[in-house]
Each structure stands twice: as C-alpha cells, then as structure tokens.
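Hi there, hope your week has been kind to you so far. Thanks so much in advance, here it is.
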Amino acid sequence: MRLVLLGPPGSGKGTQASLLKDRLNVAHISTGDLLRAAVAAETDLGKIAKATMDAGELVSDELVLQLLEDRLGEPDAANGYILDGYPRNLAQAEALDGLLERLNQTIDHALALIVDQEQIVHRLARRSAEQGRSDDSEEVVRHRLTVYSEQTAPVAAYYDRKGLLTNIDGMGTIEEINERLVKALGH
C-alpha cells in the first residue's frame, strides 16, 4: 500500500504515519528526514542540499525527488510506504506521479487530516513549550498555515480529482484519529 498523508503543520501527520507504518508494515518516508539523513551522511546529494540550506535557500524539488527515488528503492519500501509531508505543492505532486510511473507504481490513497486552525496553534504552542522549538511560535505557525493553505491544500484537490482522497477528522485523541485512518484504508 502506497499512501500520501496530507495535513497542515501540527495536524499530527508524523505521529499518525509512525503508527500506521507499524500497523500496515510499510515504510514511513518523511522528506525532511531524508534531507537531514543525506546531509548527516555527507552523501553527494546531502552535500548539495547542505550548501543550498546553508545559503538560506530551499532545496530544489529535483533534489528532493532524487532523494525520494533512492529511498523508494530500499527494501523496507517494497511492501509500500507512507509519504509524510510530500508532495507539498502541485508541481511536486505531478513530479511524484512521473517518478512513480517510471517505477511502475501508483499512489493507492491520499489521506488528508482535517484539523481546526486554532487547535493547530494550540498544539504547536504546547510543542514549542515542551521542545523549545522556535519554529512553533504563534506568529510563525499562523504564517505556516497560510503557506499551507496556498500551496499544499491544492494537492488535496489534485488527489480528489484522481479519486484517491479521503478527508479524515484530525480532532480527538491520537488513537481515535488512527482508527479513522485505518478504517478509511479498509483495514
């Protein structure tokens, strides 16, 4: 099973992807984790990514797609995977489709976590206090939600047009949300 997990920052994508990974016996793939791992391992792609990030620029979609292609070839992704935080925009969704076509794969489901914006601000403020994350201040969170709405939310419409999207109520306990996700997948 190959899944795309969508949702704004603070919607619980990472938490839910970790739970689903174990339950479905698939790989959890976060492009942010891929970038950090490539930089830490000082791979060729990691060196390019580090230089780009050190210059304060965004890593190119092409580089992220190369990292993703490498990751999809690893043995633990053979049973399927959950893409967490990717694609973030329509260009990435279309590029992902092109990559998967070359690999003779398709996305089976796109699940979108729907969470009240004020709940997200509250969740991330709590995370900021607990983990000391400066990227979770209220002002930064509200900006990230605006960026998500403008760039990433249209990806849900893209998958909806393909008949792959299921919206999931992302409010409630972690366990309740996970059960909704599993039910949507027919497991």
Summary: The longest helix spans residues 138-161.
